[in-house]
Amino acid sequence: MLPVEPAAPPGPDQGPEHPGLSRLLSALFYGSCSFLITVINKTVLTSFRFPSYLCLGIGQMVTTVIVLYVAKMSKTVQFQDFDRGVLLKIFPLPLLYVGNHITGLASTKKLSLPMFTVLRKFTIVMTMVLEIHILRKTFPKRAVCSVAAIVFGAVVAASSDLAFDMEAYTFILFNDAFTAAYGVYTKKKLGDQSLGKYGVLFYNAIIIVIPTLMLSAYTGDLHKAFMFEDWVETTFVLCFLMSCVMGFVLMYSIVLCSYYNSALTTTVVGALKNVVVAYVGIFIGGDYLFSWTNFLGLSICMSGGVVYSYLTFINNKSTTTAHEQNSKLQRTQVIQL
Description:
Structural class: mainly alpha
Distance between the termini: 46 Å
Organism: Gouania willdenowi
Subcellular location: Membrane
Transmembrane segments: 20-40, 52-71, 118-136, 143-162, 168-186, 198-219, 231-256, 263-284, 290-311
Shape: globular
Oligomer: single chain
Largest sheet: none
Membrane topology: Multi-pass membrane protein
Number of helices: 13
Domain Sugar phosphate transporter: 32-309
Radius of gyration: 21 Å
């Protein structure tokens, strides 16, 4: 059971030391990137029927490595050079990174957009549990109740999924677990100043791109990707390249949002983004089978996400204000003494 207690003053992992505008803009940036890449990946994997989500993930990883390497060589960004200590510093992020990539793309290919976004709500619960055990955080009762509403809505929507696919549901639940773990451990690893935001991104991608490439060759995915007939279509190539670039931008936005906020805030932003994606997915994508029970579950789930986000914002704002007032009072007392 999740521990419940009144909201405490912001801790070091909650990001109050960062300017409010930076926290807000990083959250909006992540939400926008997450929305765009979901639509683009869905277009590549479903509309164009690209046969390999592994190769799409490899394209995103390679893009990340190339962009950051060029930026480092041009001294646009700085991060630690590779040595043996890097592997220890960054573990287990590479494993979580590739797991998140592969399961996310697989579930995007196999699920309709609305069901994808509904089942992604379980990431919030998993993030809460991991933050409790890894970051030693606690959550107010209202936040726990809002999460319960989100999960209830997800269960209602999933119970009437007319396109039920056990493999797809397994992929999405694993994706939830990888996403939650990646977010929490990213927040933890960002405390290592020698790696920094860009080092975390670069070494994550470069460590796992070769094993993923070997896996795709072994499973035959690489051959299927090379033989794909739409490589001559300009529209497909543009969508594929957009997915590769947005893969890098998304990972950067996750790290940036986690740096300025908390892992849970990053998860909540993703959930709020899903409010838009789910309803857009009803009208585009062509694979949503409408039913009133499913739509009701979607609405409950999305409403819970909005309420949770609202409560989180109010709580953060009020606790930050109280913290600032307390600091001012302490400074006044010191001056008077």
